[in-house]
Write a structure and sequence with these properties.
Helix 3 runs parallel beside helix 7. The chain contains 8 helices and 16 strands. Strands 1-8-9-7-3-6 form a 6-stranded mixed β-sheet, with helices on both faces. Strands 2-10 form a two-stranded antiparallel ribbon. A two-stranded antiparallel ribbon has the order 4-5. The protein is globular and about 50 Å long. The longest helix is centred in the N-terminal third of the chain and has 22 residues. It starts with 6 loop residues before the first helix and ends with a strand. The chain is of the alpha+beta class. The protein has one domain. The structure holds zinc ion. Zinc ion (ZN) binds next to strand 1 and helix 7.
Length: 336
């Protein structure tokens, strides 16, 4: 959702900032948020902001020794010494809300998203992430879907209850405790995340020390809650019926957060001088697209709507934003 531009925000921030500077900083550090129109709101994930987290269990990872030649820089995004996720990160899903409901809040959507997560590893788009590394190695571009659990609830989420939801899923044994995992909390469209879903962001990723493990997690809501803000098309290549773009809209936001969580898991590795992580630099930038036709993989509704797509893997077409390729001059790219 496009945010109000310019003067109103500037004036209010200016008048407010002296009294509220500490509060605003504390609010800004919690997560890395994403929205088509909120570039200016992106927090800068730097060491100073981390210190405001106030969590004694959340010490910054030790800065590795002298940066070796393994970390390639100078491609339009900067390295800040933190780790990336290597090997084959496991992706877990917590289905929050009512996913046995109507519209796109269905078992079919759950199945489609889990299939998406099970096949995005090694795809052309995900391999763009292999241009990011730390002093011990590079991201591989591989991803594995590690499982899911359902949390039925009608209660809106807050940033605090989101973290609690992740912690409960792990501590109960519903999902494994995995420092090389990314846990997605995906909420049904009746659920709000009160820190700004649909008004400030479409999703975000962050991390926390839970039970002594550095747990990376992300919130992505069913964007059918706010298609005008968080969907690029209301009928996508996987829409079950016309006007239900939730599957495709969520896949787009999930891929954004997944790429960032892997390349900047602790918010101290890869982002540019504006605080933008790799996927932020290509937010809702899709590059060259194709149109669903009768010979495409797209769903019948997607074909009827002439939906756009730019990636094909796992037996599906998807419209996924590009990612910043960290090589050469750097560029938003659909592939290496
Ligand atoms: Zn982002």
């Amino acid at each position: 959702m496009k945010l109000p531009q310019g003067k109103i925000r500037f004036a209010s921030v200016f008048l407010f900032m002296l009294l509220a500077a500490n509060f605003l900083m504390a609010q800004a550090v919690k997560q890395h948020v994403d929205n088509p129109g909120q570039t200016a709101m992106d927090p800068v994930p730097d060491d100073i902001t981390h210190s405001h987290r106030g969590n004694p269990n959340q010490a910054l990872p030790a800065v590795p020794g002298p940066i070796g030649q393994a970390v390639s820089t100078g491609h339009g995004i900067n390295y800040h010494n933190g780790p990336v996720m290597k090997g084959t990160p496991n992706v877990y899903v917590i289905w929050y809300g009512n996913w046995n409901g109507t519209g796109s809040n269905t078992a079919a959507t759950r199945s489609a998203i889990e299939h998406f997560l099970g096949t995005i590893g090694g795809s052309a788009l995900e391999l763009v992430n292999s241009t990011y590394g730390d002093t011990t190695g590079n991201v591989t571009g591989n991803v594995r879907f590690g499982g899911s659990t359902i949390v039925s609830s009608s209660t809106n989420l807050t940033d605090t209850s989101l973290r609690t939801t992740v912690n409960n899923a792990i501590s109960s044994g519903a999902l494994p405790r995995d420092s090389n995992g990314v846990y997605f909390v995906l909420s049904s469209s009746n659920i709000n995340e009160t820190s700004g879903f649909c008004t400030q962001y479409c999703g975000f990723h962050t991390h926390a020390s839970l039970g002594g493990t550095d747990v990376k997690y992300s919130f992505v809501g069913n964007v059918d809650r706010c298609p005008s803000g968080c969907e690029s098309q209301t009928t996508g290549p996987n829409s079950p019926v016309s006007g239900q773009g939730g599957i495709d809209g969520m896949a787009n936001v999930i891929s954004h957060e997944l790429e960032e969580a892997i390349s900047d898991p602790d918010l101290n590795a890869w982002f540019d001088s504006s605080g933008q992580e790799n996927a932020d630099k290509c937010n809702f930038n899709f590059g060259t697209t194709s149109t669903c036709t009768s010979t495409s993989i797209c769903s019948a509704a997607g074909k009827a709507a002439a939906a756009k797509f730019n990636q094909s893997f796992g037996g599906n077409d998807y419209l996924l934003q590009q990612n910043w390729r960290n090589s050469g001059a750097g560029a938003c790219a659909q592939h290496l």
